[in-house]
Design brief:
- About 40% of the residues lie in helices and about 15% in strands.
- The N and C termini lie far apart (about 35 Å).
- With about 250 residues, the protein is of the alpha/beta class.
- The protein is globular, with a radius of gyration of 17 Å.
Amino acid sequence: MSKVIVLASGKGGTGKSTVSVGLAVALVKLNKKVLLIDCDSGMRGVDLMLGVEKELIYDVSDAVGGGCDKSAAIYVTQNIYGLYMMPAALSADDEVSPSVLKELIDEIKGDYDYILIDSPAGTGSGFEAAAAAADMALIVINPEPTSVRGCLNIRRKLCEMGIDNARLVINRFCPDRFRALGIYSDLDALIDITGTQLISIVPEDVMIAAIAQRGESGQKNVPSMEAFKNLAARIEGFNPPLAKKILGL
């Protein structure tokens, strides 16, 4: 049975799209067939990260609006066998509604092991559309107060939508910087404030951002890929060690 996961963040700049792509690649390496849907209308970027931007003709708004067959808006990522993507609309005016996107996902989800939905930041209508069909949510934060506050807003909205299966991903984590900031007594204190069970810590990694901007995601091994492999394994029901142990926390 396929699983639909929305990746959300309460504020921009957390690296949510990078986490979406990293998780998609890691699931593919577990021999899963994955569709990554970019729902950030007007700000789409997943196609650039996967190096398929020159191939795009149709997007999710075309697929739900009858502008093309649904399959025409799904693109094969040539360098990552088993990973497919559906781009967001270029214009925010073409944002799709929650009910329409849910209908689309319900129609196609049987073709994939996982559908990952990269939500726009915040709790607006774009987030509601992205989360409408989700079985699970991953809330991506950075270890700082503004991001933690955003997590609380996202969690509240998910509960209102009846999505109780939410997990926390702490992205761009640097132990030395976390200690130097001195805002939280320790990482457990931060996690307690979010009220969300931790599933992954992704370390700060300049290389993953660099290869994403070059459209080479998944083609090179980078330090943070181990965290994405562990995240994928945990979603699959296995219990690899959290990065807390790897980072010596």
